[in-house]
Amino acid sequence: MRSRTLRRSAAIAVAGTLAFAGVAAADTLRADGDVVAPDVQNVVYLGAVAPSSEVVAHVGFALKCSSTSHVDPGQTVTLDLESSSHFGDGDVLSVSQATLGPVPADWTVDGDFCPFPAPVFAGATTSEVHLKAPSGVGVGFSYTLFYSRRLSPGGVDDDNTWGFSSTAVTFLLDVVSNTAPILHLPSDMTVEGDTTGGWTAAFSATATDAEDAPAPTPSCQPAVGDVIPLGTTTVNCSVIDSGGMKAAGSFDVTVTDTTAPTLSGMPGDQAVNTGDPSGARLTYATPHATDIVDASPSVRCSPTSGWLFPVGTTTVTCTATDGSGNSTSKSFDVVDRYVAPHAATAVWGEPVTSPGDVFTANPGRTIPVKVRLFVDGVEAMTGAARLTLTPCGGTAAEWSGALTRGGGRWNASIDTSDFAGACYTVRASIDGLVAGSFRLDLRGATATAKVRPH
Question: What is the value of pTM for the model shown?
């Protein structure tokens, strides 16, 4: 409680001094001792530090329009340490120069009142301050820095630009025997996913401590080795030293996926023949896709397997897409050639061509069959030629035998002694093509209607 009271008293006293110094009838240039927090803080508590340790702070600057005397548009303000004060045997080791400007062209000119709300122009550079802590333990040590302000190039009524205001900042700190450790974390990072689901965390988080040797080890969540998913994840780290003092911090990891999937098992170019002028249906094996981050990328091919491919050349394109929208495509060609179907004909020889519409025979007779076969108008001298007998009105053959070539024709003998029916269709074929047929009636069996040979 005593430490908190002393710091509060020191802050109130310094703030009162700075507030009095800031009363002016001109623009004010304020020093901001905490460039991370919003707004301007000209009194900043730096925390607890070790005796005689070096503390680094950064001071930003903000120009605010006030009253009727102003910095001229286009001018730049250069700030240097003018004077400093501190308590105890600490010291101000160094203070770097900073600049602010050029001031915007629309800044209020001398003689005019500021618009409402009054504009504020913040500087782009900061002044780096190195302080040395006192050697003794205590609370509420203060360091006040006053900055000189130089305008360039010279402008109108520069001597009255600042009025009675000053540019100053005060830092407060406590000196304790045990100080909190200091975390050293990576900056925010963007990484490419390297495993299923995201990125395998690989970063360095360390700590230093004025009292502990070795320094304590930070703990982070997610931890190194965990899989961080796609998108932005905040990694929170903390560390505690042997004296129980803690430090915490965080950084963001943005995991992206810009790598396309890989297609494998892609079919090669294919050629098919068809006797159908509309084309032919073709089935093919769909390729497989793998991806670094997505365990199951989708694969789609167009035209799809089983599609009716028209006559000609059709390109099939297969595309693999992962969950992040990355895609890769490959293709192959299907060549569908139209081949007109073969036509076969038969010219029957004696005795099938005897007078009458059908060939009639007594059951048990062996019937010689002689036939000339033609394919697409060309007589077939070789090939697989056969005869088949199918009961009239039936679909299954009751007998089948090979035709042999001899005497300039194809020949076979049909022994009817084992046939139970009275009517048969006799067909001749060559290489699977039916060339012609005739009807065979066996006497003494059930009567059948007469038809003309085919």
Answer: 0.48
